[in-house]
Amino acid sequence: MMPDRLAVGQKRSGMRQVLPQSRGWAVAALLPIGYTRTLLPAYEKVPDTEPLPFFGYSAVAGMNGKLYVAAVKTDEVRKWHPRAFNRQKLERLVHEKQEKYPENRIIGQHAHCALDYSCPTASNLFFERWEMAIAVSPGCNARCVGCISKQEEEDLISPQDRLDFIPSVDEIVEVAKGHLESAEDAIVSFGQGCEGEPLLQWPRIGKAIKTLRQQTDRGVININTNGSNPRWLQHLYDSGLDTLRVSTISGHPETYNAYYRPLGYTFDDVKESLRRASAEGVYSSINLLSFPGLIDREREVEALLSLARDTNLRLIQLRNLNIDPEVFLPRMPDFETMGKALGMRKLIQILKQELPEVEIGNFTRPIQRQSRTAQV
């Protein structure tokens, strides 16, 4: 239920109808991971109401006595389904890991994320499988409108606590080494929702990667980043980084700047980081924050295609943007300047047709890593 919003329906004639609170609720669906929303929920806001929490609100419709959600499945969900994260077992594994490594602050941080936020990548640290989280940076060089760990505006409450320490190289290696050596489809990922921008800790990450690759060649080392500094990322490529996922909301600098509000870098820096990744043989992807009615507009589609071609992207990960539309829309450029909205299904169809070499999905892949010697 969407509080302080009035339900909007459609009459048999096709006319829009706003219902009083006594006759119905305004509702939205929160999609499971692996599904991409195609429509926003219909509602009418009551004046002077609080912003909605940071979730990805998807349209819900009632038809013939059943409820339907506007979404399309865009990836395999087995590894991300709640059934894969048994709570009782997780609590036991967290306790065991914390007893084994009582001084490692990364384990303490991700125990909090796993148990209090049900974070899948934090949980995988304890299940010792798949993609595992390592948060390293409390600072950030962007001021994202929808940041989930730190908000500047008083009426916007972040759903997570920001990391408040910088781990040592030894702490990073202690957590990551065992996972890389023994976990199924092992991925160690820097850059998590509970932190700022990991690239600000590039010397520490680079040293950790070199140390890890001196001890094991198994698994994939990944970074989720805003890609703000190509030189810093080059250091990580040279250290042995395997995969890169750069967050963006658009391939167009105007839209990018409106959402990320970057500090000390430009969208050209982001593109150069992706170009260098391709040149160095690092598997590159983007984490495309998806908001129906924005990223499917003609200008945005063309800009996205151009970005993918210019940087030789391998994967586009669609990510439902978690934000109240009433918070997001006033901060974005005028949609009327972006051409017609084609629809999310059409966007996905165009991406598949125009970029046949680019995979469309939602998750980081456990790629077959190349033999790339770290530079000392």
Automatic annotation (TrEMBL):
Entry protein name: Radical SAM protein
Which PROSITE patterns does this entry report, sorted A to Z? RADICAL_SAM
What is the residue range of the signal peptide feature?
Answer: none
Asked if Iron is a keyword of the record, the answer is yes
The GO terms describing molecular function are: 4 iron, 4 sulfur cluster binding; catalytic activity; metal ion binding
> Which InterPro entries did the record assign?
Aldolase_TIM, Elp3/MiaA/NifB-like_rSAM, Organic_radical-activating, rSAM, rSAM_sf
Which co-factors does it depend on? [4Fe-4S] cluster
Q: Where is the Radical SAM core domain?
A: 126-357
Q: Which residues form a coiled coil?
A: none
Keywords, in A-Z order: 4Fe-4S, Iron, Iron-sulfur, Metal-binding, S-adenosyl-L-methionine
Q: Keyword check for Metal-binding, yes or no.
A: yes
